[in-house]
Design goal:
alpha/beta; 8-stranded parallel barrel; two-stranded antiparallel ribbon
Length: 212
């Protein structure tokens, strides 16, 4: 059976970029609810965008050690939102909301131990990025994929410096459940390059079609 690699387009701030991502075959869209980020978007604005896309696109909200009140507010504004925690949130902090979530792991300090990952019992996936622990991704930097210990008991989402030129090699080497891209398909911070979006999704679909 051929592998299907899911794709999340992150850092969405505009409706036209969300619609293009869906048109070219993205499976999920990421909205950055971190005010320090140049891709920051308010939950109300994200909701307006989300109302324009189809029901089969997963909506993901990025948080970085945010107050519980902010996370609860976003969850109430956007039904079905999946949190993605990028900071040093404890398992208890991630799981207090009673919804599926993604835990982002910055590999700038190396691969966490199996026990550290296992503590996030209800994480539906782990996203591995190139940033330092406790920092937001989207830097455009690739990490050494050899650092990624694939003995992980949850789906792996690969991020960090991916673009249309290197995504095929990343999939062939890691065989992740999903790919996450932000800066690699941008014309500017928070503004997607639609030609790059199309090329990126086409490369993913091509490598999947060639896999056995």
């Amino acid at each position: 059976m051929n592998q299907i690699t899911r794709v999340k387009i992150c850092g969405i701030t505009r409706t036209e970029d969300a619609l293009a991502s869906e048109q070219y075959g993205a499976d999920a869209l990421g909205f950055v609810f971190v005010k320090a980020s140049k891709r920051f978007i308010e939950p109300d604005a994200a909701k307006t965008i989300i109302e324009q896309i189809g029901p089969f696109i997963t909506r993901v909200g990025l948080f970085l050690e945010a107050p519980a009140s902010e996370i609860e507010q976003a969850l109430s504004i956007i039904p079905g939102l999946m949190p993605q925690f990028h900071g040093r949130e404890t398992p208890e902090e991630c799981e207090r909301y009673g919804v599926p979530y993604i835990k982002a792991i910055g590999l700038g300090a190396g691969m966490p131990s199996a026990d550290e990952l296992a503590a996030y019992k209800n994480a539906c996936a782990f996203l591995f990025d190139s940033n330092e622990p406790g920092k937001l991704g989207g830097t455009g930097h690739v990490f050494d994929w050899q650092k990624l210990d694939q003995n992980v008991d949850r789906p792996i989402i690969l991020a960090g410096g991916l673009n249309p030129d290197n995504v095929a090699g990343a999939i062939e080497q890691i065989r992740p459940y999903a790919i996450d891209v932000s800066s690699g398909v941008e014309a500017a911070k928070g503004v997607k390059d639609h030609a790059a979006l199309r090329a990126f999704l086409a490369k993913v679909h091509q490598v999947d079609a060639n896999s056995c």
